[in-house]
Amino acid sequence: MAFRRLPTASCLLEVERKFRALKIRKLTQHGGIPHFRSLQKLSVEIIRDSYYDKSNMLSSAGAWVRKRNGEWQAKIKKGGNFTNSRFQELSHIDEIEAHVKRVVGIGGATSNFGLQPVATFSTTRESWIADGEFRIVLDTTDFDHQVGEVELQKVLVGNNGDDAPDELRQQREMQLMDEKIVTFMQTYAWAFSVGEPKGKLTAYFELLRTQDN
């Protein structure tokens, strides 16, 4: 996913709901009833992720720092659970470093913020934009795990462009975004498999434990 420079007093919000797999072999606009109003197939991506942490301090605090295709990114949990996730996304080095320092007390991008790599894998990502705004993603890792998500993103600008949006406003906006995703997935239930989804990191660590035994 491409990250872009945001207005100074703003934040990028992301709300996503995960699904186990697609219910149909190939996602098309007219693959079920009702049809998607529109469906744009995006280019397939190959994503190389390395996740970093220090004694699980970041993940325990609801933060995930990774280097994706050579670029640093951070996702800060803002509520929800694994299946229904709400994040603020950081893509600027100074913002990521500041958050890492707040959590673990160290920093410095040249030294990986003082963190250690905990997981590295590649993902083949198929993506679609449905109904003009909903991003449907299906990920297949190089260790043969698959998981998907429907997500919405929104840049939230502070009042009068002076102050960053406060936490309450962020939470209200993310609640509305989540409600839209729920309605979307219910409307097009023919596209999404039922069952409990498993995240890529969870599957990765489970595989490591199996290999160690």
UniProtKB/TrEMBL annotation:
Catalysis: reaction(s): thiamine triphosphate + H2O = thiamine diphosphate + phosphate + H(+)
Q: What does the similarity note say?
A: Belongs to the ThTPase family.
Instruction: Describe the protein's quaternary organization and the partners it interacts with.
Output: Monomer.
Q: Which SUPFAM superfamilies match?
A: CYTH-like phosphatases (SSF55154)
Cleavable signal peptide:
none
> What processes in GO biological process is this protein linked to?
thiamine diphosphate metabolic process; thiamine metabolic process
Pfam families this protein is in?
CYTH (PF01928)
Q: What class of enzyme is it?
A: hydrolase
Q: Which GO terms describe its cellular component?
A: cytoplasm
Give residue ranges for domain CYTH.
12-188
| Keyword line | Acetylation, Cytoplasm, Hydrolase, Magnesium, Metal-binding
Localization per record = Cytoplasm
Requisite cofactors: Mg(2+)
Q: Name one GO molecular function term.
A: magnesium ion binding
**Transmembrane residues, as ranges?**
none
In terms of CDD domains, this protein maps to:
ThTPase
Enzyme Commission code: 3.6.1.28
**Biological role stated in the UniProt entry:** Hydrolase highly specific for thiamine triphosphate (ThTP).
State the name under which the record lists this protein: Thiamine-triphosphatase
